[in-house]
Known about the structure:
- This protein is α/β, with parallel strands linked by helices.
- The protein has one domain: Spore Coat Polysaccharide Biosynthesis Protein SpsA, Chain A, CATH 3.90.550.10.
- The chain has 9 helices and 12 strands.
Amino acid sequence: MLVSIIITTYNRPDALLLVxxxxxxxxxxxxxxxxxxxxxxxxxxxxxxxxxKSSKLNIIHSWQKDQGFRVAQSRNKAIxxxxxxxxxxxxGDVILHHKFIQDHINNAQANYFVQGSRxxxxxxxxSKIFVRKDLSFSIFSRGLRNRKNVIHSNLMCxxxxxxxxxxxxxxxxxxxxxxxxxxxxxxxxxxxxGWGREDSEFIxxxxxxGINRKNVHFNALQLHLWHKNNSREFLEKNNLILKEAxxxxxxxxxxxxxxxx
Length: 261
């Protein structure tokens, strides 16, 4: 299995650095890391260039012009540039458990996508991490919400594994799927602009096409750094696209990844 990690980012190079460092600390390296950059300025480009000089990671920078929040299109472009056969999507402000990639590989399964979970870090503790550069975390770490989500246990993972199709809790900050399954539904819908629902609509079409949800706990752990909430300006419009996909059992979107392949 060749794993391509896709990292979404926008003008937060300090957080992106921590993400990349946590990937370097993995027990299993990915085939490649593709950074889906939704129009960051030169500071992110400099960070990536400097990091690549000393890193063993195969890093690809996929950049598009800053024309507002267009994460669906940015992900499509990054996935199109990837050469792995298994995709793991993460955000540009998460710290990964050192077995994160291995856990995703262990839980990968034909005709399923894997939904992982996360623990949320407080604003105060997030600020401290940028100073300390400490990538380790445990159930005893300060400033955690959803504290149980940092417990790593293969036994508990098997016991609490859930295979059931539903939309609640879909988070593309921690999700894995076979690239072919993504291409078969034409990837993310580029019609989504502004924050919200592009991930749920993507998952609706996956499930409509026979790719089922595998919910994983106590494996594939990540710590999500605090950030301000994005604008909900386009949420009503995006909700309509999602409702249309659910109502009409859409499998394909016309404006998707095929334009970049």
